[in-house]
Amino acid sequence: PKYTAGIAAAAILAFSGVATSAMADPIKLRISTPAVESDWHAKMLTVFKDELEKNAPGQFDVEIHLNASLFKQGTEPAAMQRGNLDMAMISAQDIAKQIPAWSVFTAGYLIRDPDHQRHVFHSDIGKEFYKMVADDMNIEILDVGYLGTRQLDLRGDKKIETPADLAGVKLRMPGSDAWLFLGNALGANATPLAFGEVYTGLQTGTIDGQDNPLPTVKAAKFYEVTNQIVLTSHLVDAVFLSMAKSTYDELSEQQQKIVHDAAEVATLYNNVHRIEDEEKLIDFFKEQGLKVYKPDVEAFRKKVQQDYLNSDFAKDWPKGIVERINAVK
Ligand code: KDO
């Protein structure tokens, strides 16, 4: 019986050997993001992975790298362009570094709300802007996710009503021109710092505050080291779930469709949860002892919009784009 079992095992091994060599290896999709595990856009990557597994079992091997452990924040587009990374959630600010027209989506107080955002990027405007990214950066945008509406999150108890009240406030922004411009347009002294260093920066007081959507303030625990949240709602922010063209072009047409569908399911999952959270979190932060209040939002809107319209960025915006974006319902 021992002998027969041995033969049977050998037969199974031989058979499975044949089977694996006949089947294509799964396509590896390495994703890098600075997002922390409990934030919705990190969770949406797991939804994306599960969708692929459900609709194309064994065809993809998705590897999710959180906390910027694989690539530094902001370096993901270049990594994809060099063929070192398959996927990332890139920002309009990242794209604007290479395609100046994209800076229109870094402007404060332009996109009105999450629905407006999704409708804009699912309209001809989105098609035109995604095509620029495909043609000029070799990156395929799969879908847009709502990162949330950015709010000010500050140390200290100085009441902030208007941009003038932010004079001298060292406001951390992610490190690029478009981000720093926004921080300065709000009236603050914008200081660049990577996302992963913000908590310590707030704790030690090397920065006076930061801006992020409320779900991120919770997920990254910034509320532990700040005292107030000022509801400026200055940027309805987006992340674009994207794939390197070099990877995308290797997929079959059917796989490309499966990937796009999975991105849609994942971003919708993110949006629903994030919007729900944004409504609930004000109470949570108050319970944690933070002051949460609305400043004179009109004063912020007026200054920020003026600054953008007068900026060098606006010179690179396609003619009539602001009106077209505003006209999207
Ligand atoms: C941030 O650094 O403040 C930011 O919100 C910028 C976004 O573009 C995005 O990179 C995000 O961080 C990370 O995904 C972490 O949540």
The count of β-strands is: 9
Radius of gyration of CA atoms, rounded to a whole number: 23 Å
- Give the biggest beta sheet: 9 strands, mixed
Portion of residues within helices: 40-55%
**Tell me, what's the shape?**
globular
- Which hetero compounds are present in the coordinates? 3-deoxy-alpha-D-manno-oct-2-ulopyranosonic acid
Strand content: 15-25%
The end-to-end span amounts to 75 Å
Low-confidence stretches: 1-22
Helix and strand sequence: HEHEHEHHHEEHEHEHEHHEHH
Number of helices: 13
Layout of SSEs?
Layout: H1 2-22, E1 27-32, H2 40-55, E2 60-65, H3 76-81, E3 87-90, H4 92-96, H5 114-121, H6 124-137, E4 139-154, E5 170-173, H7 177-185, E6 189-192, H8 198-204, E7 209-213, H9 214-219, E8 228-244, H10 245-248, H11 253-287, E9 291-293, H12 297-309, H13 321-327
Parallel strand pairs: 1-2, 1-3, 5-6, 5-7, 8-9
Antiparallel strand pairs: 3-8, 4-7, 4-8
The protein binds 3-deoxy-alpha-D-manno-oct-2-ulopyranosonic acid (KDO).
Residues 33-35, 39, 41, 73, 91, 174, 195, 212, 216 line the site of 3-deoxy-alpha-D-manno-oct-2-ulopyranosonic acid.
Report what the structure shows.
- With 329 residues, the protein is α/β, with parallel strands linked by helices.
- The chain has helices at 2-22, 40-55, 76-81, 92-96, 114-121, 124-137, 177-185, 198-204, 214-219, 245-248, 253-287, 297-309, 321-327; strands at residues 27-32, 60-65, 87-90, 139-154, 170-173, 189-192, 209-213, 228-244, 291-293.
- Strands 1, 2, 3, 4, 5, 6, 7, 8 and 9 form a 9-stranded mixed beta sheet that branches.
- Strand 1, helix 2 and strand 2 (60-65) form a beta-alpha-beta unit.
- It starts with a helix and ends with a helix.
- Bound molecules: 3-deoxy-alpha-D-manno-oct-2-ulopyranosonic acid.
- Residues 33-35, 39, 41, 73, 91, 174, 195, 212, 216 line the site of 3-deoxy-alpha-D-manno-oct-2-ulopyranosonic acid.
